[in-house]
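Re-run requested by the PI after the first attempt was lost when the workstation crashed. Everything re-entered from the original request form. Ligand of interest: flavin-adenine dinucleotide.
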Amino acid sequence: MSDALEQFRSETRAWLEANCPAEMRTPQTSEDETCWGGRNFKFTSQAQKDWMDRMGAKGWTVPEWPKAYGGGGLSKEEAKVLSSELRRIKARSPLNSFGIWMLGPALLKFGSEEQKKHYLPQIARGEIRWCQGYSEPGSGSDLASLRTSAEDKGDHYLVNGQKVWTSYADKADWIFCLVRTDPTVAKHHGISFLLFDMASPGVSTAPIKLISGASPFCQTFFDNVKVPKENLVGVPGKGWDIAKYLLTHEREMIGAMDTGDARETMAQVAARKIGLENGTIADAALRTDIIRHEIDAWAFALTMERVKDTAKAGQGVGALSSMLKYYGTELNKQRMELLMSIGGSDGLLWEGDNKGDGDLSRGWLRSRANSIEGGTSEINLNIIAKRVLELPGA
Amino acid sequence: MALVLNEDQAMIRDSAEGFFKAEAPTTAFRKLRDSKDATGFDRALWKKMAEMGFAGVLVPEGHGGSGFGYVGAGLIQEAIGRNLSLSPMLSTAILAATALLVGGTDEQKAAYLPKIASGDLLMALASDEKSRHTPNHVATTAAASGNGFKLNGTKSFVLDGHVADKLIVAARTSGADGDTDGITLFLVDPKAAGVSIARQPMVDSRNAAKVVLNDVQVDGADVLGEVGNGWAILERALDAGRACLAAEMLGVSAQSFETTVDYLKTRDQFGVKIGSFQALQHRAAHLFCEVELARSVTLRALQALDEGDDRASIFASLAKAKGGEVAKLATNEGVQLHGGIGMTDEFDIGLYMKRARAARETFGDIAFNGDRLAKLMGY
Ligand SMILES: Cc1cc2nc3c(=O)[nH]c(=O)nc-3n(C[C@H](O)[C@H](O)[C@H](O)COP(=O)(O)OP(=O)(O)OC[C@H]3O[C@@H](n4cnc5c(N)ncnc54)[C@H](O)[C@@H]3O)c2cc1C
């Protein structure tokens, strides 16, 4: 490693030592402790708020975004150092955000200079929480058939329609929304990408309960919502390109995440719950399933690494976000299935007096959505067949 | 190390791909197979492979090799897998060279490595005794005798054992069957009294041999490594074999996959290309992902061997296990999606399926390597 990078590492280490509160270096025990930021976010502790604020002010919630837009302005190598230092002290994520994962990359590519200067720093500092208004009751996989309309009224658009499955719509401050600005042209061409405040008159939400018991998503209604013209990103009618670009980022993010307990490997969980006999997991048949899963999971992790290294080496990676989304989410579902098997009847617990009771069964149920949200497995296989394999008529 | 090929490695890949496609394509394979060639490969090809630096891929330049390392060896193996090229690459250039590099004395290295690199010496590793790979099962005995040892036992599935100029034999000098301690490696002349070798043609048209050792006298100087401590050398040679077989299977998988996707684009049924059927598209797309995964684990395993990573054994087993499963899927899907023509001898896809089957068994399938990996990881 170069001297400059070593220097950066020691400075980073010192800064984190001084600024990451001790409570933020303990493993998160439940999803409630995730920091999402935003106007109405209820921090679970002062430490959680301090951690977000300090990282946000430094731009390290988005280390590689330019400094001019609230980012850390770090090179890829520096960002890698930062993340390894964060891992070293077992720091929690300071901020989770659709703004960081989805909208930010799209604005960096398609936004005007004013839009970037205005929206990106708010995302970096965790001031505004965003939700994603893509799916509609009649338009899921066939997203481009969406019907929510935005009528040009001279100085503003008038938005009418309904979105569904909008994650955290009831908690978000703003929405990035796909709307139809031109109903007369082919379906992919009349779509625009619009940003607006969820507090605007005419916006309402109704939470929907999931099989996991939680209600992270909503029906979202727009009834004559006035949206200033300058809130349109890119060119009217060209929103589909932005929508697709954003989806590739969303897919990589979903493919890379696993919802389970990241503190222990599956083998460690199995060793703890089932026990070892002569150094191997006592349930031989289940051990075989675990081994086969771990082989796939490791091969997948190495593939993610290779895709990143290939991109860094300036070699093309193609439509691989679909591969990562498809394979990663199917693996994660399998992983939760196996963790349930390892847990046996304990895994079936739905609620209880102890912290964490019911987490496994709810996590297992939540993971079922991984292969649906952000484009289903089938849709991602379609994309691989069409874009990568160039199969006919796909 | 980044999981990408550097410039030198990319050059090796390109030259290996070009070489085997031109010099040893599947037509050459068929010729050797159909003529029941006694050697099982073309010696002239092996000479050319030596000139290309392939035979000496692991041999340091000081000993006349090209020193491309395991990543280089894997890239050559991948091209071999793509073309089903027949050669003693695995037995001599990978298994024997590794054993000599890890366990050989300076004299042994000087005596054998240059000849391996120049293509003048063929070697074979005689370790397995059971039909399912169990390397610590060594019942062959080596009893002290004169200034050396007397070997007795039977070895099976000795790759290229029928043509080897020198055998590396694992035998027990102490301990009980199954112990890893007490195994010693010997360099044995196949023409020595008491050695009998029977060629065993396999389903993939490659040759393995059964080697019977009956009171075979070897000299003390023919011990490879230390007496009783051969296990570590054997493990390293087998790991090199596992990683390089993973690379060969990657070539088999990639070629089968590409051939199949091409067929989906050309074959018409119901008035359309069969590749327009979504049921087939999804299978092809899934297979694409699997081949990418096999590529990642293989490269990591080869790099780990080059780096002397202490997890090299784990990665070798990971690559062998995953690579084998992917090769199974790729070749079986290949046959199925070709329909009737996939079952014909005239068409290549079945040849790849046979090679995949044999390569999966060699040095352990997913059951063996998965178990080994888990034990190495503590579960
Ligand atoms: C937990 C969760 C959170 C979500 N969050 C958001 C959000 O924040 N914002 C947002 O906009 N949306 C969100 N979604 C919606 C999600 O993007 C859609 O559910 C998804 O795109 C699928 O659409 P659908 O539900 O209408 O299913 P459908 O499109 O009706 O699909 C039904 C089934 O048909 C299959 N299918 C459909 N078309 C094809 C085809 N061409 N070929 C083969 N199979 C096909 C699908 O794969 C699926 O199995 C969320 C969903 C979930 C589950």
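Saved to the shared folder this time. Chain B has three domains: 7-122, 125-228, 232-376.
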